[in-house]
Amino acid sequence: MFIIDIIAGIAVGVLVGFGVGGGGLIIIYLTIIKSVEQLNAQSVNLSFFIVTSVVALIFHLKKYKINYKTAAVISAAGAVGSIAGSVAVNFLDPAFLGKSFGVFLIVSGMIELFRKNK
Fold first, then answer.
1. Residue-range definition of the domain harbouring residue 17
2. What confidence tier does 46 reach under pLDDT thresholds 50, 70, 90?
3. Angle, in degrees to the nearest 10, between helices 38-62 and 94-114
4. How far apart are the C-alpha atoms of 28 and 9, rounded to whole Å?
5. Is the pLDDT of residue 20 over 80?
């Protein structure tokens, strides 16, 4: 089964490289196939995201493709949202979080599927 995990990790990594939302895929794999709890799967997803983001940042820095003003605003908003989310998760039922995340994935997938400007 370890080989399947490696293959899944590589496949998700390749999809992330192509711009597909690999984080959602890795959470689905971990929760459905591996029976990992939702919050643990999200922790793995966060670790995965950090690594892939650092690699992407290195390439963008080398090609001078970063608008630093926009990056600062988005980073600050992301930090505030992360803190708010980590506080809120302590007051919410894990089952509710799992279902909410599932609805989010379905809605965002449908938006991407029917979006006209691709």
1. 1-65
2. confident
3. 40
4. 12
5. no
